[in-house]
Write a structure and sequence with these properties.
Number of domains: 1
Oligomer: single chain
Order of helices and strands: HHHEHEHEEHEHHHEE
Mean pLDDT: 90
Strand order of the largest sheet: 3-2-1-4-5-7-6
Helix content: 40-55%
CATH class: Alpha Beta
Distance between the termini: 25 Å
Low-confidence stretches: none
Length: 223
């Protein structure tokens, strides 16, 4: 599991150039990935949504635009990230650890976490906490990186461990933060392993959808 102290320090250091770096490293695909998620959520017409590990607010902003009737609250344990989220237009932000969310049971129709669960110190504990704040019938949506299968697997892993850290280091001056990223993606449960983790955490109707040949995956589960 990731070291929470290191993760917090790393994200604080890269907050200033986080959005630009994500766009460059993904060749802009991160924008489309978030639109896929927000489009799904828009069909559910939620009234209250919690975006956990929101960072600079990319997904929260997309959902806020897609679902103007929905109250979107963005949380992150890195205050430096949320400063940028607020500056970009997120109306409500709360500095909070995903393992101890400062909300009552059943407050939200939807909980989202994009590229954040992978960085948490305890995946099962985080999932249980997200389930706790969901209303009965509410849905959890996870968007995160995964390792593609087939012919793309070898070149993608080479990019992940050799090209990505160098480019990100040049953009942010914090190469080590992105060297950590490759290892965290390799270790993160994906596909059926994540579905099993969701089910063991009390979610039903758990399923996953790979995007961009499996470079990222969307997971869903209901309380």
């Amino acid at each position: 599991m990731p070291d929470a102290v290191y993760v917090h320090a790393a994200f604080a250091r890269i907050a200033e150039r986080y959005v630009l770096t994500n766009h460059v490293l993904s060749c802009g695909m991160d924008i489309w990935w978030r639109r896929v998620v927000s489009s799904r959520i828009g069909k559910w017409q939620p009234k209250r949504l919690l975006d956990v590990a929101s960072g600079t607010g990319d997904l929260a902003l997309e959902i806020q635009d897609r679902c103007p009737q929905c109250e979107v609250i963005a949380t992150d344990f890195c205050a430096e990230m949320l400063v940028h989220a607020s500056g970009r237009g997120i109306a409500k932000t709360v500095v909070a650890d995903a393992l101890a969310l400062p909300f009552a049971d059943g407050e939200f129709d939807v909980v989202t976490v994009a590229f954040g669960l992978r960085n948490m110190a305890d995946y099962p504990a985080a999932l249980l906490e997200m389930r706790r704040v969901l209303a009965p019938g509410g849905r959890l949506v996870i968007l995160d990186f995964s390792i593609p299968s087939g012919l793309l697997r070898i070149p993608y892993r080479w990019y992940l461990h050799h090209v990505l850290p160098r480019v990100a280091g040049w953009l942010t001056g914090q190469k080590d933060a992105y060297e950590y990223m490759g290892g965290s993606i390799e270790a993160f449960p994906s596909g059926n392993a994540m579905v099993n983790l969701l089910e063991s955490s009390g979610f039903y109707d758990a399923a996953y959808t790979p995007l961009t040949f499996g470079v990222v995956t969307v997971y869903e589960g209901a309380r």
